Description:
Layout: E1 3-7, H1 8-15, H2 21-30, E2 33-38, E3 42-47, H3 57-67, E4 79-89, E5 97-104, H4 112-125, E6 134-140, E7 148-155, E8 159-160, E9 169-170, H5 171-177, H6 179-184, E10 194-200, E11 203-207, E12 211-212, E13 225-231, H7 234-248, E14 255-262, E15 268-271, E16 277-282, H8 283-290, H9 296-305, E17 309-313, E18 316-321, H10 331-342, H11 362-376, E19 380-381, E20 387-388, H12 390-395, E21 401-402, E22 404-405, E23 416-417, H13 422-430, E24 439-451, E25 457-468, H14 474-487, E26 492-496, E27 502-512, E28 515-523, H15 525-531, E29 537-543, H16 544-547
Parallel strand pairs: 4-7, 4-14, 19-24
Antiparallel strand pairs: 1-3, 2-3, 5-13, 5-14, 6-13, 7-10, 8-9, 10-11, 11-12, 14-15, 16-18, 17-18, 20-23, 21-24, 22-23, 24-25, 25-29, 26-27, 27-28, 28-29
Amino acid sequence: MPVVRFSRSRLEGLVGRPLGDEELGDLVFRVKGEVESLSDEQVELEVTSDRPDLLMPEGLARALRGLLGVEAGLPRLRISGDTGIVLRVERVPSRPYIGVAVVYDYPLSGGVLEELIQFQEKLHVTVGRKRRKVAIGIHDLDKLPSPHLVYREARLDERMTPLHTGRAMSIAETLSQTEQGREYGRISLRDDSLHPAIFSGGEIISLPPVINSDVTRLETGTRNLLIDVTGTDREAVYKTLDLLTSTLAERRPAAIGRIRVELPSGDLEHHPLLERGTLEASVDYVNRSLGTSLTGEEAVERLERMRWEAHVDGERIRATYPEYRLDILHPIDLVEDIAMAQGYDRLPLTPPREMLRPREDPLERLSREASELAAGLGFMEMHTFTLVPSWINEEYLPPRREPVGLVNPISAEMAQFRASMVPSLLLTLRESQGARLPLRIHEVGTVATVSQRDGALEETLSLGMAVMDDSVSFEDIQAPIYALVRALGLRPSTEKRDHPGFIRGRSANLLVNSVLAGRVGEVSPAVLERLGIKYPVAVAELDLSKVLGFL
């Protein structure tokens, strides 16, 4: 979790009164943080990563004022209206999204500048994923060359004055000669020739996610801020901008200024959006989750202390959460905030209704026993991905079944959930051809298919075994799978049956106690050739879910 350091006097000033050491520690704990150290001058805190709004004194003070009953409900934002600034957004494939806003009357006096930079860098590490997902630029608004901004790709020979360098450099030099350029320069560089840049009146003021220009450098005495947020995820960019502006505007008399943004699509937006979300949950759901007996009105009161706006509608709580809360996803998050306002140490302790004795799942016990037997037979255990290429998965589909495919796979190599253990075994052998032969491997894992008859999803636990050698016969895999089944106290047999993906006449159904429970055979040369496997392979698969019924 990120650790931040604040001025204690500034934090207490934002809260509105002094805070004792014990009181501050208790309050911070209730918002899922922890005080690392305290002195008269400084507070050092460890803050949970899902509450980035607490990484700045303004945000933490806002939360503490709610817990202390000084304020309740949604914070009232001060918005000054249109700033007169216009941003034109062009197509930037490597970093397509940008949000911009102004915060007026936020003087960077004393240690505020250091706390603001700390806030920016902690957001880069947490929400921003080390600037890859989101990156933030903060500028002195009064130094802006022009109110006309453009976000576009720039050539590497275009020039800027990087922060703290004191001289103009090409973008190529900025990426290669500055510390930030060397660390972050490859993140959004496209085709080694184009890089995202923000222009003001023809002058580069930012090279996201790398470095700002010295032209708009922040310094002690800066009063008005221009904030840009760029990234690869639209929602993350816009919500981070909402978080930044609404948190900084907590410091009186700061106010938020909106900027007109012309998107590549021709649409028009005004940033920041400052969008708030809604959730609802039943009073019974809250009480069952927490073991409490709160009334709807009591639950609402606690939510309002956590800076929500809420009301009771019959048996349901309907609530709106503030724009700076990036962690709210599900009704259980509403319940968690009620628990924090109540205080975890004030929740009732309820003994369990009955004591249950733990019992090992029979299928898990069988899978462990089968894996140990396979290892004892000389087959090395594997643990592989459950996602496989669609073409090989469909080669080994069981009869009358359909594969489980992904709507938006990350790559063609991970397009479907495996319908058999055979694809996983073959993909492992493909990457292991440099090993000493013969190579014997096994894996126990979940396979999933969809029934053609009723569309039902079926998941089973299966054991797969494979042998790869200079020459391999059907008997090389039949003998060990027979030995494994017999060791389980069952009776194995085979019935000749051709299966797709196997050599014709060299595959069979595997029976356990005369019931179909798997298959065994030599892999088709066509499949091996497509995978680039140079040696013959024989495989066996045993459905452990069926085997369990005989034990």
